[in-house]
Amino acid sequence: MLCVRACSGLIRTAMRVRTLHSFPGITVAQIDEEVSKLLQLKAQIGGDDGKHQFVLKTAKGTRDYNPKQMAIREKVFNTILGCFKRHGAETIDTPVFELKETLTGKYGEDSKLIYDLKDQGGELLSLRYDLTVPFARYLAMNKITNIKRYHIAKVYRRDNPAMTRGRYREFYQCDFDIAGQYDAMIPDAECLKIVYEILSELDIGDFRIKVNDRRILDGMFAVCGVPDDKFRTICSTVDKLDKMPWEEVRKEMVSEKGLSEEAADQIGEYVSLQGETPNSQTSVICCQ
């Protein structure tokens, strides 16, 4: 048996293996061919200096932004910030990473998309997945009961990126939240007004605001015969409709989630419905 222990010994090995031509079934040509392959591999990994060759690029799911793109982003952010402030919101900031136990179990199946960090000081940490859970932790820690807050910052998701469709592993979220006790529907109406004002000021053309309500989705699942213990997992699959065609969503619900074909087909009838309320340009959909 020939044992090659290091790339630096390849040349000496090539000289020695020529003496093996007397072994039955082994020819010098075969040995030379294998040695040539090893030498090519050695060249690819950087030769004898121990330095690996690599290509300069951004990490998968991330990108750089040039000055022109940053100028556009700055203008958009200023528009959003101006609207948030007009509505009396205050801003906060939270760490880019949280205790892992703070984030665990908050996102259902999407918890697998959380980036875990290597333990460096006795604490298990993870990069924030969104800005909502850190906000809830902030409220609980500081015993805050009423606040109107905005937060614009990067979040991280260990997802399969689709760069051409704007899906990244590192991206900004612009959050506006109203926490506390208020008259029914007043905060909801204000959030809709904020979205309308921002999109109008950005002058992106015609747009449609879609409103969802998890209670409608739960009611649809109940009518379709989805078992109570599968509501959340089926909801997670339905949420993928903006990324996947219905055929793939149906296959996941039936093959992976164990939902009956009849229930899946009924869900398909509901999620395919589109339309407008008689006296409004605002569409109401049951999932997002």
Automatic annotation (TrEMBL):
Residues of the Aminoacyl-transfer RNA synthetases class-II family profile domain: 61-250
UniProt protein name: Histidine--tRNA ligase isoform X2
Keywords: Ligase
A GO molecular-function annotation: RNA binding
PANTHER family cross-referenced by the UniProt entry: HISTIDINE--TRNA LIGASE, HISTIDYL-TRNA SYNTHETASE
SUPFAM superfamilies linked: Class II aaRS and biotin synthetases (SSF55681)
PROSITE patterns, alphabetized: AA_TRNA_LIGASE_II
Pfam families found in the cross-reference section: tRNA-synt_His
Naturally occurring in which organism (per UniProt): Notothenia coriiceps (black rockcod)
Family: Belongs to the class-II aminoacyl-tRNA synthetase family.
Gene Ontology CC entries for this record: cytosol; mitochondrion
Biological process (GO), any one: histidyl-tRNA aminoacylation
